């Protein structure tokens, strides 16, 4: 356990506070689907998935799926216990919803986000209602997720307004993908790059 105080984060790394949240009873906002959008399943093709993953997550330095071995990612995407959904606009996927049903009686919301084309449109609240429905329709008892301080500043409040309750916090330190993995150095300007 960490004691009170400050801790240095090594150059080339990022540090984030991760908050774990859960929902044990489904709660819906009852938000209608915004005009021009369609809720649908997402292609399980790794190239198409990664393209959408980057469009949704780049501003927040999402890197987990981009660093995976392609076969490992393909295995996850094609597993029957993985639910993949999107919101399409003009035939183009503009949202990412990935659900993990690999633990009996539970569902983890692995990834949830919108491209800039949908932010502020009400699509997020609608998509969360669909996520909750998809999760609890499989008879789960617990729907859980985690978010972190590298994500959108609105993310934690959004999840709480959607009915998720915070249950824990932890600190995560990882390689800064802008330094270690060639991500665009202009991404996530709210998190300064500190080179080694």
Description:
The protein is α+β, with helices and mostly antiparallel strands and 196 residues long. 23% of the residues lie in helices and 30% in strands. It is built from five helices and eight strands. The protein has helices spanning 46-57, 70-77, 123-136, 155-161, 177-180; strands at 13-23, 37-41, 82-89, 92-93, 95-100, 106-114, 142-148, 165-175. Strands 1, 2, 3, 4, 5, 6, 7 and 8 form an eight-stranded mixed β-sheet that branches. Strand 5 and strand 6 form a beta hairpin. The longest helix has 14 residues, at 123-136. The relative contact order is 0.25. The mean pLDDT is 95.
Architecture blueprint of SSEs:
Blueprint: E1 13-23, E2 37-41, H1 46-57, H2 70-77, E3 82-89, E4 92-93, E5 95-100, E6 106-114, H3 123-136, E7 142-148, H4 155-161, E8 165-175, H5 177-180
Parallel strand pairs: 6-7
Antiparallel strand pairs: 1-7, 1-8, 2-3, 3-4, 3-5, 5-6
From the helix content, strand content and strand pairing, which structural class follows?
alpha+beta
* First-last Cα distance: 27 Å
SSE sequence, one letter per element: EEHHEEEEHEHEH
Largest sheet: 8 strands, mixed
Number of helices: 5
Percentage of β-strand residues: 25-35%
